[in-house]
Structure formats: C-alpha cells, structure tokens
Design goal:
Layout lengths: L7 E11 L2 E7 L11 E6 L4 E2 L4 E2 L3 E4 L2 E3 L2 E6 L4 H7 L6 E8 L12 E6 L4 H9 L5 E6 L2 H4 L8 E5 L6 E2 L2 H11 L4 E5 L2 H13 L4 E4 L15 E3 L5 E3 L6 E3 L15
Parallel strand pairs: 10-11, 10-14, 11-12, 12-13, 14-15
Antiparallel strand pairs: 1-2, 1-9, 2-8, 3-6, 3-9, 4-5, 7-8, 15-18, 16-17
Helix pairs in contact: 4-5
C-alpha cells in the first residue's frame, strides 16, 4: 500500500541500541500497512538543519524495518548530520514521516525456499520480510565487525559473516550464499546491502539462473519520482528511479548494480 501524498507528524516511543546501530521506534497506529521492502522519508520535527542559518536538511530515506503493535521501526546508523540528528531523538519527540513508499518484495513461488541476504544497515527491510513470510527463510547477514554484527539481533536465526572474523564466518557474506545455492539451486534470493555486495549477489544469481530481488538504496530528495536524483541504469538502456520503480527490483533488470546504489556497510 502507498501512503497518502502527505507527511505525518509521528511521536517517538523509544530508541534501542543494537551495537553500532540504533532502532528508532515511532507510534503510527493509523498509518498505512507497509509492504516488506518499502521505505519512508524521515525528518526530525525540531532542529532539522545545520549551519548558521539553520538551513533545513532534506528528509532521509529509511527502509521500514518492522511494524508491530502500532509502531514502525527504523534501523539507524550515524553516518552524517541527518542520521546523527535522528539518532539523537528521544521518547516524546516529533518525527515527520512520508511513507510507505516504493515497491516492496514479492513473495516466493510456492515450494521455493527464500534466502535473505543482508549487509550492514541493509539488513533492515529483511526483518519485516522475515515477519511476512509464511515459511521459514534462511537468513545470511554480513558486517564489518563485532559492534555492527550486534544488529543481527533484528532478525531470527541468522548466520553471520564478519570482515574481521570477530563473529561467525571470517570472510565474505557471499561465501555463505554460495554454499546455500550449491545445496539448493531452486531457492529465491532477497538481498539488501552495500553496492559491492549487491553486485556480487546479482552476478552469482545471474550465473546460476537463480531468481533474485535486490533492495537498492540511492540518494533521494523527494521519494516519489519527481527529482530523478535516485536514477540507476537499467539493462538494455534507460533508467529506473529507485524511489518508484524500486527500491526492490528484479535483479534481471540490471546490467550491474551502480556503485552508489547500496546501503551503508
């Protein structure tokens, strides 16, 4: 479901620490029910801007990580002034939200096993996807280090890989994916994470003719297709706008994943 074409003023109910990440919880009892993979444009109701003149920041796009008991949850990482301000929010403060927006994940065909592959902050939309799937999915998550690997608690029964070997498999997340696809080439892959990871997943699935859906992230100014700031190249020519033709796209639509079309690692 898409949201009405207007932002809503929501109230923060809490902020949970997940290692290097924070999980922002906001009350949204009357908001549209999101599909797994959709996102919202977020902005703090107060002190949303910088510089001497307090110039407002543009809203920031965040995947909806979960909807539960009238709350929406968003996974945050402090990577710049906008995300830092959102990380500072406390219970009772206001948050402007426009969403849910974009296209979400499509359910796997009956009998096909879902493999959820997430890297860094890109794990967020896989949490609500796991909640939505009727059958148990295999969950593979990759992180840089132990602090970020604590974000794996957002999903259930996840197998973890870390770049530094501090948690789980020491090496690439795609090592775990390759083993799963060798065991079951009839699976469907759902992936979201940094662009190099997404490109590796796309290439691997293309080589094995394995269906894959990729959750892209790209710089957005509006969230509804007007600014063309999030356009990425489409296979065969032309472009698709991540905010409206995505953020979830069939991997076969892409010749490759653009370098900037991925979530923070």
């Amino acid at each position: 479901m898409s949201a009405p074409f207007a932002r809503r003023l929501l109230t923060v109910t809490g902020m949970d620490q997940l290692g290097s990440y924070q999980l922002l919880r906001v009350a949204d009892p009357d908001g549209p029910e999101p599909r797994a993979g959709q996102f919202a444009m977020l902005a703090a109701a107060e002190r949303w801007g910088g510089g001497e003149d307090g110039r407002p920041y543009l809203p920031r796009a965040f995947s909806i990580a979960r909807r539960h008991a009238g709350e929406c949850h968003f996974l945050l990482e402090d990577v710049g002034p906008g995300s830092r301000r959102l990380c500072e929010l406390g219970a009772g403060e206001g948050l402007w939200a426009l969403g849910p927006l974009g296209r979400g994940f499509a359910a796997p065909e009956q009998g096909r096993r879902a493999i959820l592959v997430g890297g860094g902050a890109g794990i967020a939309p896989l949490a609500i996807l796991q909640d939505a799937l009727d059958e148990r999915a295999t969950v593979l998550l990759g992180f840089r280090d132990r602090g970020r690997a604590e974000g794996a608690a957002l999903l259930r029964d996840a197998r973890v890989a870390t770049d530094d070997g501090s948690v789980g498999h020491h090496g690439l997340l795609t090592d775990l994916l390759a083993a799963e696809l060798e065991r079951d080439a009839g699976a469907v892959v759902y992936a979201c994470g940094p662009a190099p990871m997404l490109e590796a997943v796309r290439s691997m699935c293309a080589a094995g003719a394995i269906p894959a859906q990729l959750g892209l992230e790209a710089p957005m100014a509006c969230g509804f297709g007007a600014c063309f700031g999030c356009a990425v190249a489409r296979r065969g020519g032309g472009y698709l706008r991540v905010c409206v033709e995505g953020p979830v796209v069939d991997a076969r639509q892409l010749e490759r994943v653009d370098e900037y079309a991925g979530a923070p690692a």
